[in-house]
Every structure is written in C-alpha cells, then in structure tokens.
C-alpha cells in the first residue's frame, strides 16, 4: 500500500471523526478514529522514508488550479514523530472536554491542517491548511470547560496567529507575483530572478507568519495562556505535530522557495535575524518557564524555547550557505530536525503526565504529592527519561541534539565573515544560558511535580492508561538517542536534495555520532546506554554496604520549631524565588498582600498573599495596542449615531470620491 494512499485514509478517518464528534453517543468512536488516523499517518511516514512521496494531483481545485500533494523526507520525519504523542493524546482524550464534542472536532481539524501544511504544494492550499490548524486549536480549547471561564486566552491566540496569517498571505502573494503563479515549484524556479528585495521581504514575512505558531517573541506570550486553559492532550498536539508543521513550513520556505544559495547577502542577513530572534526567544521563554507553578504553562514555555533553538539552527544553516559551506549548512539543518523529533516525544509524554495528575487530584499545580510512589514504574521511567531529554542529560535524545547544536555553532570559525563568527559565538553563549535554566526548570518539574511525600487528601494514583502512555513515550525518547546512528539515514535524501551532500551519513562513524568528522568531537549514546548500568554498580554496591548499618532519622530543621515533614518541603515558589530575585530586571516581579476582615477592620479574617512576574510584551506591546484600538473605537462611535442625514452625507461623499477617481 502506497504512502499517499495511507495519508488519504488517515485524512478520511479524521474527517469521519469530526463528523461523529457532535453526538455524545459517538464520542468514543470519534476518539478511536482520531487515534487510528494518527497510527495510519505514522505507518505512512515509515513507509515513505527516506525517499519521500511523489507529488500527486488531488481531484479538487482551489483558486482556479488543481491541488497537489506530496511529502518531502523532512516533512515525513517531523510529522511521524509528531503523530506518536498525538495518537496517545487522541486515544486518551481530554479530561476537560466533558460532554462537548468540540475537542474531538478541533483535534481532527488540527491534524488535517497539519497534514496539509506538510504536503500541499501551492500557496492558497497552504493558507487554507494553516487556518484549519488555527481553527482546530481554538475548537479544542473552547471545548474544554469553555462555559467556566472567559475566552480571552483563545482570542489572544487567534489574534496573534492572524497577524502571522496576514504575513503569510503577503509573502505568498509577493512570490506569486514574481513567479506568475502560486505553486511552490514555480516559487523555487523563479527565485533566482525575483531579486534581493523580494527575497528579503518574503523571508521576513515567512519568519513572522510561521514564527507566530513557533512561539518566537513577542508571539510566545499566547503559549502559557492558551495551553494553561486547555488539557495536556491539547498541549501534546500543539507542541508535537502542529509545532513541527510550522517549523517545516518555515524551513521549506527559506531553503526551497527563496534562492538563498545564490543570494549570499540575503542568506546572511536572514540568518543573523533568525539567530538573534531565536536566542532571545529561547532565553526569555525558559526564564519564564522556570517561574511557572502550573504543569501546562511551564511545558508551553519550554515548547517555545525548543522551537526557538530549532529556528537558531535554521539561521545557522543560512550563514553557512552564504559562505558556500554546504556540508555545515546541511549539518545545522539536520540537527534542527533531530532536535524537534526528540522534543515532540518528550513533551508529549509530560503533557500526558500532567493529564494523569489532573485525573488523580483535579489540579495541574506543581505540588509535591508523591506521584511516583503511588503510580508505578512506567510513569516514573517515562517521566524521568522525558525530563532528562528536555534538560539535555545523557544519554537521552535531547542531550544528543543539544550536543549537536553546540558542535555546529562551534564550527563558526569556518565562516569568512567576522560578523558571522561573532554572531555564532554570542549564540553559543545564549544557548548555554538557556540550557542551564532548562536543566533547573525540569529539576523543579520532576522533583516537585512528581516526587515528595504522598498527600493524605489524595488517595487515587495516576490512571494506568496515562502512566502507560507516558512510559511508552519515554522509552521512545531513549530509542531516538540510542538508535540515532540508524534513524539519521532517513534524512539522507532530503539533505542531498537541498545541499548536494549526504550529511546524515557523515554524522555517523560506526556507532559514534560526530559533527562531520570524528577528529573534532564525538559521542555514542548507543555505547553509553551499555556503559551506564556498569558504572551504576559502584553506587549500588555502596548503597548495599551502607544498608547494613542502622539509619537514624531525625526531623528536618525548621527554624528551631517542630514541624511536620510536609510543612518543611520545598514549594515551587521557594525553589524559583532566587532566580526571580537575581533576574528581577527581566521578571519585574509583583507582590501583593490583601486582608479580609471580619466585622471590624482590626479583626483580620484572612491574609491573602500573591506573587507573580510581569509579562513583558503584554505590558509594553499588547496593552498599549489594545488601548489604542479602544480609543479609536470610541472616536468612531459617531458613525453609529443613527442619524439618517449623517448616513446620507457619508454616501454622498463616497459617490463624489468614486466619481473623482473615475475621472482621474
């Protein structure tokens, strides 16, 4: 069975799931069809790699021309890894959807839109698929306890995504005008004759458009609001297949539709902009992730940080292409794909772990309640592997990709431009800061979110289905790292088509992973996974020896007072407060204390303390824009005065203007 046929079957099952979503009796069937479509998509990706699929015309037309579909190897890679957590999320469903079928319909629209972004071959169809992803995300969020809260997070998300959609429309129209049509093949064929100005404008517009969904600043501020208003299942779809689709589209636009290889100045300029924007976004996103006390908000900021790292590598690709270093450009391009593959699996596992915690206690707060003691081995293994990957701890997938990121940046001495070398040095320093804060962030998430003393008020463990899904995804994260010498071959054809060099094969030397040469550096997660259990024998032996001696347990020192062990535990606030104080110029922390009185004001009934951090772009960009729109709306209210003479005067002025323009 061909891969295109499997993709067609996957799309058909998602459409059928959307149709079955409204009736409550068919809700289980809709969830099963969503997961089945994801499984078919995974099989299709495995079948088509490493060659991709041929471009086939579909029996539909859009904007007066037939719609075609075909998948490149990079698209198959990113979609396949994104669909794995999406399948588990669909099968488990959203714990917040209740009796509403909107979540299932939204998931179907998001998956269909992502499939279109990965495979459609013209600008009009791409824009339709892009809007389908946005609509699907809004439906999922509105289907999760929508009646219990305001829709402001969803409206903010849609507003910022529509800014991106307008930028994409501008870029497609601009390239279409230069090429004479809006097929992607025509964009690439006429790129050399389009000129530097068209490439510059289109490149910036694509960065804004796709960056709105990748979480580049200032767009990343919709992430915590939207993610935290939904479930972990929604977050798994957003941070997996949807985020991967956005990055693939940006990479395809810059590397395929714009002839940056022939226009070194354009490639260099776009690369510098992408690196600067990506590094700044990664640092800010991970700093704010560290301060979150909600599973979904923390993981959403982390998704923005990881997407920003991938954008940095896309910028590095352009710098190397500008200097005609095709092998190093291909290395940076491949590293970004490897990074997003591991991120999709690990982030999906932790979002589903968050849903499991919510199902057990009714809250997404990061509070130490001893979930690992309650919920079994699989939850612990999957969570610790995923946390290790996102914190770049060996031998997980995140460690492999981060190691490659730094090894690629260290190759900046090959560049001919001093500015390019300086940019990569600064980028390396910024990414090192982001990686260090990410390590602390996931130590906090795992240590406070899953460990601690069991809470006597919570007796239910994490559901077995959620724990199993987390465990399987965590093992997949480890498999990506251990099997990297094998999996990288799937990207060989894609790299060769773009850079005319078989980069993935040059990144492997036997069971070693190397940055094109083993003379520069090397690691081997495959061998490390065998050596680490042997290295663990020594601490295990010491533990066995010490177990023979009596252990004396004493209460934790709590300011000289006798306290229960639970009262002395570290909280999310105390863990992150030192960083909040040190980086106060970024966080701009807010602290408030309010008193509730009983009868008379000197009888204090309750003291409420709250602390937080300031959202920089909301205060300095979004709120002024909202105030400006409100002022304009107040001034324009006169147009709705209801005065018939005023309306007739407006119509008369419009007719005079039309007549004047006609005579000109």
Protein architecture, described:
By secondary structure, the chain is mainly alpha-helical. It has a domain at 621-663. Helices cover 69% and strands 6% of the residues. The protein has 28 helices and 6 strands. It has helices spanning 3-20, 27-48, 73-92, 102-119, 123-142, 152-179, 184-189, 191-194, 196-214, 222-228, 232-257, 264-290, 295-322, 326-361, 371-375, 377-390, 397-409, 418-449, 464-482, 484-487, 492-499, 503-506, 525-535, 537-546, 572-582, 584-587, 616-636, 644-663, and strands at residues 56-62, 65-69, 508-509, 512-513, 590-598, 600-612. The strands form 3 sheets. The protein has a two-stranded antiparallel ribbon. Strands 3-4 form a two-stranded antiparallel sheet. Helix 2 packs parallel to helix 4, helix 11 runs antiparallel to helix 14 (326-361) and helix 14 (326-361) runs antiparallel to helix 19 (464-482). The radius of gyration is 26 Å and the shape is globular.
